[in-house]
Amino acid sequence: MFFFKGRKKRIVDSYPEPIYDIIIEPFAGSAAYSCKYWDRKVILIDLDPTIAGIWDYLINIATPEMILKLPIIKYGEKIDDKKFNKLLQAEKDLIGFYMGTGNARPNKKNIHF
C-alpha cells in the first residue's frame, strides 16, 4: 500500500498462509502481510499516529477516485507548500512515504528526480 521502513513486501511470500479467518497485525506499518490476504478479516494496530492516520484514511475515507486525484509532488516541492493546504494530513503523510521510500517518517520535500 505504501513504503515503510521494515516493510515485508519482498519477503511476504516466505511467511505461511494464515490459519484463521482473522489476521491481527500488532505492528501494522504498511501491512504487507494483511494486504496479501485482503479477503480475510484484518485488524491493524499501530501506536504511531501517522501510520494509524494513514490506515484510517485508506480504510474509512478514501475512494479510488480520491487516491487518483492526489497530486504528484514535483522535484523540489514540499508537501507543506501552501498549494497543498487542502490535502488532509493523512494524504500528505501517504504522499510523503512515496517520496521517501523505506523511511520511518514521511518526507516533507521531494528530493527524487
Per-chain topology:
Layout: E1 22-25, H1 32-36, E2 41-44, H2 49-61, H3 64-68, H4 89-99
Parallel strand pairs: 1-2
Helix pairs in contact: 2-4
Characterization of this structure:
By secondary structure, the chain is mainly alpha-helical. It has one domain (12-99). It has helices spanning 32-36, 49-61, 64-68, 89-99, and strands at 22-25, 41-44. Helix 2 (49-61) packs across helix 4. The radius of gyration is 15 Å and the shape is elongated. The relative contact order is 0.17. The mean pLDDT is 83.
Give a summary of the structure in a few sentences.
The protein is mostly helical.
Q: Estimate the mean pLDDT confidence.
A: 83
What is the string of SSEs from the N terminus onward?
A: EHEHHH
Largest sheet: 2 strands, parallel
The residue ranges in which pLDDT falls below 50 over 5 or more consecutive positions are none
Number of alpha- plus pi-helical segments = 4
Share of helix, binned: 25-40%
What is the domain total for the residues? Answer: 1
Strand order of the largest sheet: 1-2
- Tally of strands: 2
Overall shape: elongated
Main structural class: mainly alpha
Distance between the termini: 22 Å
The radius of gyration computed from the alpha-carbon positions, rounded to a whole number of angstroms, is 15 Å
What keyword list fits this structure?
113 residues, mainly alpha, two-stranded parallel sheet, elongated
